[in-house]
Design a protein that fits this description.
Helix content is 61%, strand content 0%. It is mainly α and 297 residues long. Helix 4 (65-90) packs across helix 6, helix 4 (65-90) runs parallel beside helix 11 and helix 7 (152-176) crosses helix 10 (226-256).
Length: 297
């Protein structure tokens, strides 16, 4: 289903777009109706096609081309780490194997913090900073004209899931990792962070038990208590958000970097990414279940 009412927008003169001519590759990503009409029917704003044919002068990146490329590159790096993290969590179904993998990983010693900083924390800081800049500029308004990222609903969901991920990752890293509240306590001796004096809630020496504790017994007491259920459901929401943000980001990011030149190929890539998203969501759910209270944990 293609976006309607394009011919008049394509033929109309556009002085703004003339100052930003298209280049081969490194485009803004995705196409959009160049004359956004707030009166369009919902079926015109929710297309499943990745793009519509782009005309010369249709790019309105307003000088943010390099910024979008940095977002994509750091997003791809973080996506690779998240895939590895999902696969690692699935090993929780086999506690002995999960413990062995965690022990081997932490035997890297001093090299592990360097890898974490270089391959995860630095890309994460860059990605979040540029993402917040975009969010400040575009807000969470539906139907922003200058998004160039497929349909309006896809771009809106990308921003919404980005906000959800920011909340979830802030909580997850602060509580489970030594770079979070443990580091805050070491630097400030803040009594409220005394729970993290020895490290994050995840303990490599007790990998399965500590992971289950952080996910299902965060506030202590039974896992079925409302407070603990809220935390475990936050993990579920984080999985859903990261799956959509990643698969849609791969689809649009491939266009930003010029990897997908043709309109049909872009639409095909979007569909492939969505199919992969269902697989990734299933893997994430298995990893979430692996640490639920029960004999398998």
């Amino acid at each position: 289903m293609a976006i309607a009412s394009q011919e008049g927008a394509v033929n109309a003169p556009d002085t703004e777009s003339e100052s930003h001519p298209l280049r081969d590759g490194s485009q803004c990503g995705g196409d959009w109706p160049s004359a956004h009409d707030p009166n369009l029917a919902p079926r015109h704003t929710l297309p499943v096609e990745f793009c519509v044919p782009k005309e010369e002068g249709d790019c309105r990146c307003d000088g943010h081309g390099l910024e979008r490329q940095l977002v994509v590159i750091t997003g791809f790096m973080l996506g690779a780490f998240l895939l590895l993290h999902f696969a690692f969590n699935v090993l929780g179904l086999w506690p002995a194997l999960f413990q062995l993998t965690a022990s081997l990983t932490h035997r890297l010693g001093g090299a592990l913090p360097s890898l974490e900083i270089g391959l995860v924390l630095v890309p994460l800081v860059v990605h979040v900073a540029l993402g917040l800049r975009t969010l400040w500029r575009e807000k969470l308004v539906f139907g922003v004209e200058k998004h160039h990222r497929g349909s309006d609903v896809r771009y809106w969901l990308q921003r919404v899931t980005g906000v959800i991920l920011l909340v979830f990752l802030s909580f997850h890293l602060a509580t489970t990792h030594r770079w979070g509240l443990h580091l805050v306590y070491q630097m400030t001796r803040w009594p409220a962070a005394g729970r993290y004096a020895a490290g994050g809630l995840f303990e490599p020496q007790h990998a399965v038990a500590s992971a289950s504790e952080a996910q299902w017994h965060f506030w202590g007491g039974p896992a079925a208590s409302p407070a603990n259920l809220l935390v475990s459901e936050l993990f579920l929401l984080g999985i859903a958000a990261v799956v959509y943000h990643l698969v849609n980001g791969v689809a649009t990011g491939s266009e930003v970097l010029g990897f997908v030149p043709g309109g049909r190929r872009k639409d095909s890539l979007w569909r492939v990414c969505m199919g992969a998203g269902f697989v990734l969501a299933a893997i994430g759910l298995v990893g979430w279940y692996a640490f639920s209270p029960g004999p398998h944990s």
